[in-house]
Design goal:
Strand order of the largest sheet: 1-3-2
Distance between the termini: 55 Å
Number of strands: 3
Structural class: alpha+beta
Order of helices and strands: HEHEEHH
Radius of gyration: 26 Å
Amino acid sequence: MIEETFEYLDEESEKLLQKILQLDVKLDVNLRGIAAEHLVLKGYISGIDARTLSDVEPVYILTGLTQKGKSYFELKKKHEKQNRKLTHREWQIAIVSAIVGALIGLIPSIIQWIQ
């Protein structure tokens, strides 16, 4: 099984992507700001750079939503669930190790009681 690494988006980019997904934003809409640029550069949405010399912030024309963008929140949920499973497993291993260690430590006392 090939394990993909999940990359979290920053809060502003995540909100913009969620807005695009929820509102079903139409194509050929101007998106402004660093978050839009980040989404385009990371491949979550496809867009055309429409920045002019007078623009202070990046401007992109939305041309589509990639599969990576469509599945981001589902993958994020799966990644967080997997992390919780690992955390539970680590706790279980720690508890079992502590119990085994305590039992091993009691062996000399048990031997003395038997004699």
